[in-house]
Design goal:
alpha+beta, Dna Ligase, domain 1, D-amino Acid Aminotransferase, Chain A, domain 1, Rossmann fold, 3 domains, 6-stranded antiparallel beta sheet, 4-stranded antiparallel beta sheet, 13 helices, globular
Length: 398
């Protein structure tokens, strides 16, 4: 689960992390009061969307002004103007795709006198199973570009979960950022605070870009992006309340109600698969035969008929879908349960596109029999390769 910058900063502040003062607003008429509360003389007006690259982004609407999604204001009137130009408009960045995202919230923040900019993030290193800190002197830039062009400027260090953060971690971060004296002490304290926040709130990613040194010699978090492990949200009901559904795909929201792992994609072939690895292989083979998947959907190993029905309805609700591939390898998941779920869904919503079903594993013969006797116009497949070729051919009208 992702949250907005202003929400992330509010949470980090409870752990002592140094952040600038700011006020979130959702209506243009609240901009003046927010600016007066902060006092100026310089303010930063920031679009709040779940995507990076806001500063370099462009609004689709002509009346949104020519500046990006992060703007520097030097008067209260400018704050008001920017707020009216940005709220309700569609911001397009590298991460939103061409459709962009509507800006429904702004964060008005006091300006900062910047001396240096750094990059600092924490994430779960899947190879070691530890939390890793990634730091670079190249703050304010796309870290992917830094990794590609100057990988030697990125330093990664992991934290053993048994010991937690130790003094050497802070020293290593300070050394990587070439900080000395009091700034080195501040860096060590910041690492302690960020690690406590990361573990305490079950984060999956915490990115600060940039982390700045102010002209008066203090470290400050100027931007913050936070994602949480959705599987751990049951431990943090207060965090779940921060979820902004307007930032999410409606189909993904519906899928989350049934605990389905669903991600919307841009293709034409809807996929329903059990198991993340098999789902990825299914997406790959669809692309191999010249089409694009419309979604990633893993119904899981123990899905019920209700869950399968819900998954099928979500797929068919996507107007981009021109064909559906059901690919089930039954272990814990039983093929007859999948078959009954598919039939129930088709009867409930109808079937206007080609459907290919590949079943293998537990109760496979019962599942195939249920499909065959259903009277539905379903193309059976012997294996994944056969299924992929059949659905691609059906979509292309061959």
């Amino acid at each position: 689960m992702n949250i907005h910058e202003y929400q992330a900063k509010a949470l980090l502040k409870t752990y002592g992390v140094p952040i600038s003062k700011g006020v979130p607003i959702m209506r243009p008429e609240d901009a003046e009061a927010a600016a007066n509360e902060l006092g100026g003389p310089v303010w930063v007006v920031k679009s709040q969307i779940h995507a990076g690259g806001r500063g370099k982004g462009k609004f689709k609407e002509a009346d949104a002004g020519e500046q990006g999604g992060v703007r520097l204001a030097r008067s209260v009137d400018e704050v008001k103007t920017f707020a009216s130009q940005m709220l309700g408009k569609t911001l397009v960045t590298k991460q939103t795709g061409p459709a962009g995202k509507q800006v429904n919230r702004l964060y008005i923040e006091e300006g900062s006198a910047i001396d240096k900019e750094f990059y600092l993030s924490a994430l779960v290193d899947r190879e070691t199973g530890h939390v890793a800190f990634v730091v670079s002197t190249e703050g304010g830039m796309d870290i992917e570009e830094v990794a590609h062009s100057t990988p030697e400027k990125i330093v990664t260090l992991t934290v053993d979960p048994v010991t937690g953060v130790m003094p050497h971690h802070g020293r290593s971060v300070a050394k990587a950022l070439k900080l000395t004296g009091d700034l080195a002490k501040q860096a060590a304290s910041l690492v302690d605070q960020l690690y406590a926040a990361f573990v305490g709130m079950d984060m999956s990613m915490l990115e600060i870009n940039p982390l700045i040194v102010t002209k008066d010699g203090n470290l400050r978090v100027l931007d913050a992006k936070v994602s949480f492990d959705s599987n751990a949200l049951y431990r943090h009901p207060d965090l779940a309340d921060l979820r902004d559904l307007t930032e999410e795909d409606e189909k993904e929201i519906e899928a989350s109600k049934y605990d389905l792992a669903y991600i919307a994609l841009d293709g034409t072939i809807g996929c329903m698969v059990n198991g993340a690895g098999l789902a990825m292989a299914t997406l790959d083979i669809i692309k191999l035969y010249g089409e694009e998947p419309a979604n990633f959907l893993d119904v899981g190993g123990g899905a019920s008929e209700e869950k399968v029905t819900a998954a099928f309805k979500i797929i068919t609700a996507d107007p981009q879908v021109k064909g559906i591939l059901v690919n089930i390898f039954g272990g814990i998941m039983k093929c007859d349960v999948i078959a009954n779920g598919v039939i129930a869904a088709v009867k409930a919503v109808g079937l206007s596109v080609p459907l290919v079903v590949r079943l293998e594993g537990t109760n496979v013969e019962e599942g195939k029999k249920i499909i065959a006797e259903s009277g539905l116009n379903v193309l059976p497949a012997d294996d994944l390769d056969d299924a992929a070729q059949k659905i691609v051919a059906a979509v292309k009208g061959n």
